[in-house]
Design goal:
Elements (H helix, E strand, L loop, with lengths): L13 H9 L7 H14 L5 E2 L10 E5 L6 H4 L1 E2 L6 H12 L7 E5 L17 H7 L3 H6 L6 E4 L2 H4 L2 H7 L13 H4 L3 H20 L2
Parallel strand pairs: 1-3, 2-4, 2-5
């Protein structure tokens, strides 16, 4: 497997993006990619692939964002390497927390694209949240080594209850959304994100 990028936004490089796409059907992400394709067919909307540089079905930490943003159309991946401010912040926060990339899977609480083509992303509606809830059980079934879930942002945090109902023993550590819009509002936001990721890292360390 290629070395992980050492700086954010690497998928803005066409050559690196093409190399990542060539890995998209690697065995450790193939079941998740098939799951994404199934959701896309059922919802009649695009669902980005998991990043093959991440842990795939061997992930021990599920980092749950809210919805795929506009950059998904450019890369096709849910990735910390996407050319956005949110992804760049996530890249830095996960590195600072010392969470190994092979231990992570980044997914979305509503995994399909909800914004109109060319439009800015928007907050999910309650009906979309309800429609997404049944996909949590098959997602968790694909992640047998999961040791912690980190929902990022208010909307993703609402997934805590259905996740807890499915896996009561699974620690859920909520953090603020890593979007620059939130991170720049106050130094405390950054501190809360790092504190939450540090707590998640402790759960990983305590789980074989």
């Amino acid at each position: 497997m290629p070395a992980s990028p050492d700086a954010p936004k690497s998928l803005r490089d066409p050559a690196l993006l093409e190399a990542r796409r060539a890995m998209a059907d690697a065995p450790h992400v193939r079941p998740l990619r098939a799951f994404a394709r199934m959701i896309a067919a059922e919802r009649c909307a695009a669902v980005p692939d998991p990043d093959p540089l991440d842990g795939g079905v061997a992930a021990r930490l599920l980092l749950l964002l809210e919805t795929p943003g506009p950059s998904i159309g450019r890369t096709g991946f849910v990735s910390r390497d996407n050319p956005t401010g949110t992804a760049a912040n996530l890249f830095r926060f996960l590195a600072e927390a010392g969470i190994a990339r092979r231990d992570t899977l980044i997914w979305n609480a509503v995994p399909w694209v909800i914004h109109a083509p060319g439009a800015l992303n928007r907050a999910p509606r309650r009906a979309e949240a309800s429609a997404a809830t049944p996909y949590f059980a098959p997602l968790l079934a694909l992640l047998p080594r999961l040791a912690a879930v980190v929902p990022a942002g208010r909307f993703a945090r609402e997934a805590s209850a259905p996740l807890a109902a499915l896996r009561p023993e699974l620690p859920v550590v909520a953090i603020p959304h890593p979007s620059p819009t939130y991170v720049c509002t106050a130094p405390a936001v950054r501190e809360r994100i790092l504190a939450g990721l540090a707590e998640a890292a402790r759960h990983l360390a305590a789980t074989p």
